[in-house]
Amino acid sequence: MKQKARIKSKSNNIEEYAIEVYDYLIYNKKNTSSTSLISEFFLPGTITVSNKFNNLHEKDDKENFKIWIVTLVKDFYNSLLDTETIAYDYYDSDELGNLIVEILTYKITEYNSSVIDIASIQQTTDIINRIVKIVLFSDQFFPIHINKDFNELGKNVCFHMLNTMDSLPLKDQIRFSVISGTVGYDVKNSYKSCIPSKLTTDNIIKFFDNGKKISNSTIEDLMLKKLNDNFVIDHINDFLHDVSQPNTKLVFFTDDYIESIFDMKIILNLLEFNSTLEITLVPRNGQYANDFSYFDAIDILEMHSFNKLKEQLNGRFNVFKNGPKGSGISPLEFSDELIALLLGCTLILFKGARVFEMVQGINKKSYFTFNVIHEQSANLTGISTSNAPSVFVKQNANNPLFKIDTDGTVSSTVDILENAKNY
Prior knowledge:
Oligomer: single chain
Strand content: 5-15%
Radius of gyration: 21 Å
Largest sheet: 7 strands, mixed
Shape: globular
């Protein structure tokens, strides 16, 4: 259904928009209950936008910053037009892009800083999308689902492979799910759903070949072949040991839609693996890109293949409704209910490369799993993107796996990542 953009004077209140976004970004700096989970100096990411462009008064840096932001704005705004999320082109895309630049760089008197002074590089896309929604719909969390076609395609692929995955040993089921994060990468980064996008690597499992959909059987064969590759960092045995302990409470953060369907089958098998284990699934609170949402989880539970898991709902298995509002996961934005859930759990499983970059040093034993596809992941881990290798790594409480110096230099804090650099 088309949603009309707000019609109002284009003398927009830049200060009002900037404050609204800024206040949400620092929500948990005002929440005293969160301080035992994250430090007051916690940055959800590797470097702030202003530090990346640390000489914005210099002409070249300022122009590069503007080009970057306007390009991201155009991508999102054009996706709203292409998918008919909005009924008509109310703003010229360059005009909207320039407005977003003003909002991001506006110095708020109360804080003596701007949004880009506290926002990390990893948060940028989410923040830009929020500001566009504020300008168009007066709501930074206005519900938009522009990846519905991709998710439907993914669901069809997943259900074709569920029985195959379920027949594997539990460790291989977990590896299978992680690997599935590479499926459909040729289209899932394209806002115009299921339109092939340009990639710098061919080491992913594609949905399309020369515009023609690849068969589900072929995708399954490619998945099983990739299962033969070793994870470059593999702490799955440690994870299985931890979840086998009596009365363990696991909080499981989802990532992309496809792998999350496999994850729900794994959750059922983990509950059978340990009869005292409790698992809370934390999907996104709303539709963001192709990330798994609360409503997606409820929809999947209605499928016949998940009847047994549905029977556990509100018992040893729960789906958390007030999860993160965005593709990235920033503990500084977690709801009070989510902070309470994490403080009361035994351990956490986080999925996704960007989440690995954004949740370092959280004061709870955690596991991170992702595929090294992007340059940022390669820089942080020292692992080449060649063959899109997979990672399943443990982080002990309050012990970040890497740190970023003020000059942007990355240094590992654990031997396993140092050793991985030789991969």
